[in-house]
Design goal:
237 residues, Rossmann fold, 6-stranded parallel beta sheet, 4-stranded antiparallel beta sheet, 5 helices
């Protein structure tokens, strides 16, 4: 595990409520697997405060580490949102086994909201390295404006025949001309969109209630526990 002091460098707005935070570092000096998480310490009201985040960048992104967060009223979140280039931070990591499998079975990602970050890290890596993973990504959000990384995800899918991205909006309102799925991600949608679901390794990431519900539904489809990986994002239910 590595750790080091660094400086905050940049905020990138992803949606009206979601922002990415970047810290300058060479991935060669801070190696990690796509989808892992790390710990970030910043000053909150003058006190050092630690929080863990999934890495939303890829090891192939040179010059920075990035995590992405929905901005809330929490003190840590507000302190992040007010950071300026050059502000101190301490980073340590990586941790977690929510990573790509080495043998490359067909994959299924069921994600919601800010839970997209590990999938984005992996997809960005797959696209850059031109790997031949067969992947279906179902990405749920309440509103079209809150679909983080939408253009990037759609571009990756369009450029890679083995990658499919399906956007799912829960509503209650839908934008004019919305051609994506409506409702929530559940076992019925899995059955409809993945007839080969029994062959796939499932990755569940999002709010805890969503992850727990999807795990139960997948087990009801007789998918063994060893074929289900999960990453819960607390604080967003």
């Amino acid at each position: 595990m590595w750790q080091f002091d660094t400086e905050f460098s940049q905020i990138v707005r992803r949606t009206p409520s979601v922002k990415s935070f970047r810290f300058p570092i060479s991935p060669d000096n801070a190696p990690f697997e796509p989808g892992q998480f790390f710990f970030v310490t910043i000053l909150v009201n003058g006190e050092k405060t630690l929080h863990h985040f999934t890495i939303s960048s890829s090891p192939t992104d040179k010059g920075y580490l990035e995590f992405t967060k929905r901005i809330t009223a929490h003190d840590y979140s507000q302190a992040l949102d007010n950071m300026k280039p050059g502000d101190w931070a301490h980073i340590q990591g990586p941790s977690g086994g929510f990573i790509l499998p080495p043998r490359r079975p067909p994959l299924a990602f069921l994600t919601g909201g800010i839970g997209i970050t590990p999938a984005r890290s992996m997809l960005r890596y797959i696209a850059h390295e031109k790997l031949d993973y067969d992947m279906v990504l179902l990405y749920g959000n309440a509103a079209e404006a809150e679909i983080a990384f939408r253009q990037e995800l759609d571009k990756i899918a369009a450029s890679h025949p083995s990658i499919r991205v399906e956007h799912v909006l829960s509503g209650p309102e839908f934008p004019p001309g919305w051609s994506g799925r409506r409702g929530t991600i559940d076992k019925d949608l899995v059955l409809e969109l993945m007839p080969d679901y029994k062959e796939r390794l499932f990755y569940l990431s999002g709010p805890p209630k969503m992850v727990i519900s999807l795990e139960e539904q997948l087990k009801a489809l007789n998918i063994p526990a060893k074929n289900i990986k999960q990453d819960s994002f607390t604080g967003y239910d």
